Amino acid sequence: MTDKHPLGRLITQVQEAQGWSDRDLAERSAPAHPLSKTRVGDLKNKPVTSIKARTIRTLAYALNVPERLVAEAALESMGIELRLDRPAEVMEVLAADTTLSARDRFLVATLLEQMRRSAAKDWRPDEPEALAEATRLQERADSAPAQALEELAADTSPREEPEAR
């Protein structure tokens, strides 16, 4: 794994953490731009000389990581040194952390979102509304952690949640 370029290391790291094969990633790739098992292997093991934006998007989708992470790894694999003037967004780092389960990433993201809300307004956790929201978020974490994490990663700004049905 140490001999691989940054994109290859990223792919391998996620595969090992999730127990996925090249075939699994090919099956997980976006239907509009599927990646073959061979293409996944090439991206992982062969030198990267160029890569299309849609391949970056599809690979990010298949790996379940932010597009930025795949794009940076691809650029670094082509020898382009990145000097980012801004720190990585917390949600991007959280989504890229393959050591946590999807449920745990969702719970951390939910906690962060709640902390941002409380900083934005005078939020009191002992209010019935806050307790109801905490219960709703816990139920959401138990039912669909991966989907909810993707939603949170897509929009890190505080937002109003739709009312429960």
From TrEMBL:
Region of interest (Disordered), residue spans: 18-40, 135-165
GO MF terms, alphabetically ordered: DNA binding
InterPro entries assigned: Lambda_DNA-bd_dom_sf
Gene3D superfamilies: lambda repressor-like DNA-binding domains
Protein name: Uncharacterized protein
